[in-house]
């Protein structure tokens, strides 16, 4: 270090040891992005493309969502770039609308589970008394049943509608959000600044939203990504099993199911046609996989940047 | 420099050492061109404030840098071997056997899955020179020399089964077991209470002398290093300030920086009696769950005065603060503020009652919300208690910043853009913003470097003189007590042992516990430990054993 | 030792209580059925008498708790009631006991799960350990990207890719028959096993890696390093004894995950297992079978977690050697 520093008289203004450099938020984001690995960039680009497809689906899709053409199970042509499905709907159109429906439903479900699980988790963490005990024990029991199984059982009883699906999966998934919110909040609740706010006489609302929430945001954001993936895959699996999103709504999971029959015949078709029949179920499945991979890449990078430890 | 070194006795010769660390997106120097030499059997004290690089330099003597750090220059010559460029496989044959390391936190540094004796002899076993049984007997002998209780069997225990002070001694035995040429002690007693510290210090010192082992003793505590070291090197900002033989260094430091370090300990204010009792707690009993932690505690705090509450960890001093603030309602007894009884529970207290008693914490890091700016942090009590908003609030925040010797440029900084002392100042400003009558200071200086401590203590004193605020000053550090208090309360195991004016408490005769506590506080006299031990030996059975 | 017994006892009790509540939840699902479900099961032409006989046969006229008691005591004897299918409006009951339907499928699923676990668990642990040791190496980064991709993809996507890649020479339909030998069975389930293994290994390996890295960051590992311990000594002597609890949790979590993943994979490869049975029964609203399947899945899940916790308790030195 320089000599001036050695000679500086001890004064509060120029204390320096172990101080983080002052940088604006914009600058920090720029540094963060400049170091983002390729996988993260890939993830961000894919997610943006999906968002565009979902928002502008009616403009991008060549035909209407449920428009039926004469020739069913048609192979690709200039009129139908990806052919038509088993009742004669344009596959490309169904894929584009799928971005809106499948992603939209999963996003809605994840948001619901965060509102329920996050809210209750925060309350439980601040309370640390009997409310916490009741919530935590109840949720331990709910979590003892795998959610796909639970959902299947409930769907055997109730008719599957989109609202029902969102409610069932949202509530079941809220248990996991509750656990995480509670445990990260517990680390914050014991901080002296929360005690200081309590001593000042602040109410519960202030402590929740001003003191705790901003400090648990990074893990919650990462968890939102992971929960989204989980919910998205669960709904896709349910649709694939025929219990999820019902026709005529365009949905990737259902599209895989509808075209699954072709896959076992692929080895028996001659070359160019075989490609087409392989692609039929693989395209919607690939749409699902690509998005989850993209989100996972972003979350992975985000976790690495914010904690460096939590790798799962 | 110590007396003309015999060339053959030179054990460690570090030349022009430079080390960089990576953090906050850049490489920055931690150690800058430092030389260090050590002779066989010599103990070198390495002192400096946090961030001075003393621990990094200590580890560098082993040829080791922590993950995220790197050597950028210099040589580490250990007994003719160059360590800084040696590969890890070769270093392993030196680490643990020829150079061993004693860490600050023994509790975290022992593997929880293995017995102490096995861990003690592991490195020596690798040498393969002596049989396991010989090593075990030797370890038991070391345990005995280190005054560990039940030396024959303590090694069969697991780390969580013995106390912190004992673990620290077992770790010394582990370091000594292979009879190394050099031991690095990295703040080995910092986490211990003073009464425990005395025993650990004397055990370490005797053992190192008995085996004529060279040692580097790293600490921030001058009085401790004065007992342990033959020679002292002072570091600051990763550079050497000066070094000299211990007695010379203590009596005649050359550099201004060293002199300022020395002078902190002499801070003292004249006591003033106060007769206007502002806060009075009487016959308080309190418990966490079923374990009772306060027994019949009574303390009076006069207006505009400072009462220091002194005691070791577990003495109940912080619990007392929790009762006063209402965080832990008492089982029985009363808290009276200006003649009016305060409701035991926090939520039953009025906003004005809350405003008039404020609190400052030990760790300023955790006492400020890292997502709020300085303006938000100081502004909130202004808005909450006094209804100040907008321009008025901002003006007042800047006024408060100036009061604590900072300026308006701090207004929109975040806590991690501040140094430790600045953070603590912001906490003081936050308490001050409420215009309180009482501020409870819970170990507010113990996490800070000594020079920064001095600044904070002076600031608190000035604020008291200016605004007549009363302080309840909780601390374990006697030098701090001398510097700031008018009255002293000594606590031990949840009870008040002694209470009175400062000079009365600090001068003998003392009740047994106060005696043990006060006499255990290291002094800047190199003979202090010897004198103390001789005294205690003479008094023999009268001494209370530190509860270890 | 007393403390250890107490902790284990508490954990076992908690497991049983959870199992009890879960079984109660699963059972009471049947009361959520809409009132006309008897009609739906027996068909539109069913008479009032046959409907009434069907309802009382299910005990729907009795209070919930006594019905639950009958059901759960039956379950403990291995009697899961009888299926809805095979009943019809004539009132002539051709339905088979649930157990009879379920038993062969359960055997199939257990076989698939065991084979997968036998391949996946050792593979994942070794890979997890290696990536943790060579953290940030090319190997680690590659494995990270690859596993992230595998766990992101839905099981059916992986399954289809495998079918297209290997469909030419490996069976794509796992239609096992009761009289088949083990080798023949193994050949038939090769693709389902590979699919499940890919997913499980990815999950388990990432979790193992994280657990080990977490452990390697503890101060006692730095201490061991500074006392000259070699890399192998650090892993096997210092880290591993403390790693059993996290590793057990990882294994249990992933075997539990296997329980769920098996549903989709069984459907894709038309493997006659309990997952496919459950899906089929959900489709046909055969509630007794759905309940039985759900109970078996949930019980497996709870027991696996219980087992992991017990391993954690039994390897914790603080509990084994109290002060």
Can you say what the CATH homologous superfamily of chain A is?
Answer: MetI-like
CATH class of chain A: Mainly Alpha
Strand content of chain A: under 5%
User: How many E strands of chain A?
Assistant: 0
Shape of chain A: globular
Identify the CATH architecture of the largest domain in chain C: Orthogonal Bundle
User: What is the level-2 CATH architecture name of chain A?
Assistant: Orthogonal Bundle
CA(first)-CA(last) distance of chain C? 11 Å
Rg of chain A, please? 25 Å
Number of alpha- plus pi-helical segments of chain C: 14
Domain count of chain C: the total is 2
Structure classification of chain C: mainly alpha
CATH topology name of the largest domain in chain C: MetI-like fold
Largest sheet of chain C: none
Whole-angstrom Rg of chain C: 24 Å
Low-confidence stretches of chain C: none
Which series of helices and strands of chain A comes N to C? Answer: HHHHHHHHHHHH
Mean pLDDT of chain C: 82
End-to-end distance of chain A, in Å?
Answer: 41 Å
Order of helices and strands of chain C: HHHHHHHHHHHHHH
Short description:
The complex is a heterotrimer of chains A (about 300), B (about 550) and C (about 325). Chain A has about 300 residues and is mainly α.
Task: Give an overview of the whole structure.
The complex is a heterotrimer of chains A (312), B (548) and C (323). With 312 residues, chain A is mainly α. Chain A has a single domain, classed as MetI-like (MetI-like fold), CATH 1.10.3720. Chain A is built from twelve helices and no strands. Chain A has helices spanning 3-7, 25-34, 38-55, 57-60, 91-127, 130-143, 147-157, 162-189, 192-200, 204-240, 252-259, 271-306. The two termini of chain A are 41 Å apart. Chain B has 548 residues and is of the alpha/beta class. Chain B folds into two domains: 11-256, 3-Layer(aba) Sandwich (Rossmann fold); 277-372 and 435-507, Rossmann fold. Chain B is globular and about 75 Å long. The two termini of chain B are 38 Å apart. The model of chain B is unreliable at 1-7 and 541-548 (pLDDT under 50). With 323 residues, chain C is mainly α. Chain C folds into two domains: 2-76, no CATH class; 104-283, MetI-like fold (Orthogonal Bundle), CATH 1.10.3720.10. Chain C has 14 helices and no strands. Chain C has helices spanning 2-28, 37-42, 48-58, 64-76, 98-133, 138-152, 155-166, 182-188, 190-216, 219-226, 231-268, 274-283, 287-314, 317-320. In chain C, helix 12 runs antiparallel to helix 13 (287-314). Chain C is flat, with a radius of gyration of 24 Å. Chains in contact: A-B, A-C, B-C. Chains B and C meet through helix 2 and helix 4 of B and helix 10 and helix 11 of C.
């Amino acid at each position: 270090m320089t000599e001036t520093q050695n000679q500086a008289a001890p004064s509060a203004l120029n204390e320096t040891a172990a101080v983080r450099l002052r940088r604006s938020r914009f600058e920090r984001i720029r540094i963060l992005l400049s170091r983002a690995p390729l996988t993260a960039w890939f993830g961000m680009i894919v997610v943006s493309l999906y968002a565009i497809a979902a928002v502008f689906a009616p403009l991008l899709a060549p035909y209407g969502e449920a428009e039926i053409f004469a020739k069913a199970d048609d192979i690709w042509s200039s009129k139908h770039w990806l052919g038509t499905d088993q009742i004669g709907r344009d596959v490309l159109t169904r894929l584009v609308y799928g971005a809106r429906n499948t992603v939209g439903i999963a996003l809605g479900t994840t948001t619901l589970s965060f509102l329920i699980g996050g809210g209750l988790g925060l309350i439980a963490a601040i309370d640390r008394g009997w409310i916490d005990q009741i919530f935590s024990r109840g949720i331990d029991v709910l979590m003892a049943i795998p959610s796909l199984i639970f959902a299947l059982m409930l769907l055997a009883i109730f008719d599957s509608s989109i609202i029902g699906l969102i409610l069932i999966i949202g509530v079941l998934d809220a248990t996991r959000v509750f656990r995480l919110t509670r445990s990260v909040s517990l680390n914050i609740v014991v901080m002296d600044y929360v005690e200081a706010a309590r001593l000042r006489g602040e109410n519960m609302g202030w402590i929740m939203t001003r003191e705790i929430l901003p400090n648990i945001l990074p893990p919650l954001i990462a968890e939102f990504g992971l929960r989204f993936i989980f919910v998205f895959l669960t709904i896709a699996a349910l649709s694939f099993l025929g219990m999820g999103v019902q026709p005529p709504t365009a949905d990737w999971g259902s599209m895989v199911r509808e075209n699954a029959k072709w896959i076992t015949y692929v080895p028996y078709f001659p070359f160019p046609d075989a490609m087409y029949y392989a692609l039929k179920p693989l395209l919607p499945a690939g749409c699902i996989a690509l998005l989850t991979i993209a989100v996972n890449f972003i979350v992975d990078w985000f976790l690495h940047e914010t904690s460096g430890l939590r790798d799962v | 420099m110590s007396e003309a070194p015999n060339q053959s006795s030179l054990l460690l010769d570090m030349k022009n050492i430079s080390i960089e660390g990576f953090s906050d997106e850049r490489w920055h120097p931690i150690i800058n061109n430092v030389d260090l030499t050590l002779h066989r059997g010599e103990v070198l004290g390495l002192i400096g404030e946090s961030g001075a690089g003393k621990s990094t330099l200590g580890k560098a003597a082993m040829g080791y840098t922590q993950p995220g750090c790197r050597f950028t220059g210099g040589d580490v010559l250990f007994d003719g071997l160059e360590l800084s460029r040696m590969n890890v496989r070769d270093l392993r044959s030196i680490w643990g056997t020829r150079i061993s390391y004693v860490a600050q936190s023994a509790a975290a540094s022992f593997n929880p899955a293995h017995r102490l004796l096995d861990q003690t002899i592991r490195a020596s076993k690798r040498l393969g020179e002596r049989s396991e049984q010989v090593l075990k007997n030797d370890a038991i002998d070391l345990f005995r020399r280190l005054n560990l209780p039940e030396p024959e069997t303590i090694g069969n225990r697991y780390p969580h089964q013995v106390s912190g002070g004992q673990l620290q001694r077992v770790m010394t035995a582990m370091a000594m077991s292979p009879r190394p040429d050099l031991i690095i002690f990295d703040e080995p007693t910092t986490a211990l209470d003073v009464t425990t510290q005395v025993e650990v210090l004397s055990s370490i010192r005797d053992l190192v002398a008995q085996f004529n082992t060279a040692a580097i003793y790293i600490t921030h505590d001058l009085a401790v290093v004065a007992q342990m070291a033959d020679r002292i090197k002072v570091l600051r900002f990763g550079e050497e300030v000066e070094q000299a033989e211990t007695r010379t260094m203590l009596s005649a430091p050359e550099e201004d920086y060293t002199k300022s370090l020395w002078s902190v300990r002499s801070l003292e204010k004249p006591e003033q009696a106060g007769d206007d009792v502002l806060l009075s707690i009487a016959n308080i009993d309190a418990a966490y769950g079923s374990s009772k932690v306060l027994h019949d505690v009574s303390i009076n705090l006069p207006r505009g005065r400072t009462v220091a509450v002194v005691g070791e960890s577990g003495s109940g001093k912080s619990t007392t603060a929790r009762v006063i603030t209402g965080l832990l309602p008492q089982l029985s007894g009363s808290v009276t503020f200006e003649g009016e009884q305060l409701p035991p529970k926090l939520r039953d207290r009025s906003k004005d009652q809350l405003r008039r008693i404020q609190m400052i914490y030990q760790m300023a890091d955790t006492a400020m919300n890292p997502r709020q700016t300085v303006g938000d942090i100081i502004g909130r009590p202004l808005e909450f208690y006094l209804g100040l908003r907008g321009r008025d609030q901002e003006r007042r925040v800047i006024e408060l910043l100036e009061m604590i010797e900072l300026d308006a440029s701090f207004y929109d900084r975040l806590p991690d853009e501040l140094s430790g002392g600045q953070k603590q100042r912001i906490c003081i400003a936050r308490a001050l913003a409420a215009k309180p009558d009482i501020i409870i200071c819970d170990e507010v200086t113990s996490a800070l470097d000594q020079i920064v401590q001095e600044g904070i203590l002076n600031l608190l004193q000035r604020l008291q003189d200016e605004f007549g605020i009363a302080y309840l000053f909780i601390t374990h550090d006697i030098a701090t007590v001398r510097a700031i208090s008018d009255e002293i309360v000594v606590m031990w195991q949840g009870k008040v042992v002694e209470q009175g004016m400062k000079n009365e408490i600090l001068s003998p005769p003392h009740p047994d516990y106060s005696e043990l506590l006060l006499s255990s506080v290291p002094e800047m006299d190199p003979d202090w430990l010897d004198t103390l031990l001789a005294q205690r030996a003479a008094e023999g059975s009268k001494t209370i054993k530190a509860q270890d | 030792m007393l403390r250890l017994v107490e902790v284990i006892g508490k954990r076992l009790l908690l497991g049983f209580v959870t199992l009890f509540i879960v079984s109660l939840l699963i059972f009471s699902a049947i009361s959520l059925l809409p009132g006309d479900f008897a009609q739906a099961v027996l068909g539109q032409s069913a008479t009032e008498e046959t409907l009434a006989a069907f309802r009382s046969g299910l005990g729907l006229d009795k209070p919930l708790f006594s019905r639950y008691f009958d059901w759960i005591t039956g379950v403990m004897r291995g009697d899961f009631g009888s299926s809805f299918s095979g009943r019809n409006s004539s009132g002539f009951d051709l339905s088979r006991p649930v157990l009879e339907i379920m038993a062969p499928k359960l055997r199939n699923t257990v076989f698939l799960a065991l084979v997968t676990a036998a391949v996946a668990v050792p593979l994942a642990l070794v890979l997890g350990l290696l990536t943790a040791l060579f953290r940030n190496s090319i190997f680690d980064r590659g494995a990270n990207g690859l596993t992230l991709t595998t766990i992101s993809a839905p099981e059916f996507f992986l399954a289809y890719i495998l079918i297209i890649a290997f469909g030419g020479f490996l069976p794509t339909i796992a239609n096992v028959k009761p009289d088949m030998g083990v080798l023949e069975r193994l050949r038939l389930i090769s693709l389902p096993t590979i699919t499940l293994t890919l997913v499980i290994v990815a999950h388990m390996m990432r979790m193992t890696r994280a657990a080990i890295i977490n452990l390697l960051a503890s101060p006692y590992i730095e201490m061991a390093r500074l006392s000259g311990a070699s890399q192998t000594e650090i892993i096997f002597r210092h880290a591993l004894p403390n790693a059993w609890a996290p590793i057990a949790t990882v294994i249990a979590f992933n075997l539990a995950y296997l329980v769920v993943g098996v549903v989709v994979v069984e459907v894709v490869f038309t493997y006659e297992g309990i997952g496919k049975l459950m899906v089929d029964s959900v489709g046909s609203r055969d509630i007794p079978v759905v309940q039985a399947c759900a109970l078996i899945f949930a019980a497996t899940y709870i027991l696996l977690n219980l087992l992991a916790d017990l391993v954690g308790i039994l390897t914790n030195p603080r509990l084994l050697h109290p002060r």
